[in-house]
UniProtKB/TrEMBL annotation:
Its main location: membrane. Keywords: Cell outer membrane, Ion transport, Membrane, Porin, Signal, Transmembrane, Transmembrane beta strand, Transport. This is Porin domain-containing protein. The lineage of its organism: Bacteria, Pseudomonadati, Pseudomonadota, Gammaproteobacteria, Alteromonadales. GO terms for cellular component: cell outer membrane; pore complex.
Amino acid sequence: MKNNLFQGSVLAALCSVATLPATTFAADYTVYGKAEVQIANTDTGIMRYADEGTQIDAPFSRIGIKGNHKLNEYFTAVFKYEVQVKGFEHDDTNEPFAARNTYLGLKGAFGEVVVGRNDTRFKYSEGKLDNFNETQADISQVIAGQDRLGDTITYTSKYWHNAQFSFTYAPKDDNKDNEAGFAATLIYGDRNLNKTPYSISISHVDSLNNIKASRIAGVYKFEKLQLGALYQHSESIDGAKSGNGYVLSASYKLDKWVPKVQFAKDDSKLRQTSDASQWTTGVDYIFDKQTTAYLLYTDLDLEENADNSVALGLKYKF
C-alpha cells in the first residue's frame, strides 16, 4: 500500500513538472521539427537522396530542441540539439537517427559563438535560393560545399547597417583533410526575406571537407515573384579537380499554389564524377504556414549517365 502511494506521489510530481512552462527553469526553449512523407519513382538511382524504383520515405524529417538561458546582462547561453529521423524501411530501424546541427555557445553584444556540429557558413550563404531544398533536387546534388560538419566553431555577428558577417573554423585535428579550415560569409539583406525583399551573399571556404571554393549568391522577391542566382568556382584541395557551377531559380505565388523551376550546372566533378546539370520543375500547395503538399520532377544529366525522379510529398513543420 505504501509503495503504491509512493509511486502515485512520484507520478503526480512528474506530471506537475511536465506541465510547467519552459521558463520555470530560467531557460526559454522550443521543441520543433519537420515530419515529411514522400512517394517517389526514380529511374536509375544514380542521383543522391533517391533510390531506384518506387520508394516511400521520410526525407530529412527531424526533431530538435533549441533555446537560450540568460546568464547575466552581458551573456546568454544558446543551445540546439537536433537529429534526423530516418525513413520507414526496415533497415532504418537499426540506426533510426542521424546527427544534425547540435551545438552550445554564447551570445551577446558581440554576436554569437557556438561550438559543435553546424552548417558551414558557406552552406549558410545560400539563404532562400534553393527552391527544392532537402529533396532529390537539392542544389547539393551538383554543387559542392553544402556541408554540415562536426567539431566546428561558428561565429555570427549581429546585423550592422543591413549586413551580417559569419565565420566557421575547424581545427586541424578535427578536419577531414587534416588541415585547419574555415568558411567566411558576408550577407547584405535578410537571408530569410522577412525584413528585406532581397539577400546578397559573398562567401569563401578553404580546406573544409576537402574543397576550396568561392561563391556569390542572390535572391530577390518582388511581390509574388521570387528569383535566385548563384555562381561558384570550386576546386579540390590537391588541385586535381576544379570548375565552375551556377544555379538559377524562380517561383511565383498564386494564392495557395506556388509553381517553381530551377536549373543547376557544375563542371568541377566534385559532387558527381563528370560534368553535371540538373533541371527541376514542381508546384507546392500551401495549406497553412506549417503544412505543404508538393509535386516535383527532376532530371539529372551526366556525361555517360542520366537519372530522373518524380515525387509527391507532404510536409508538416512544428
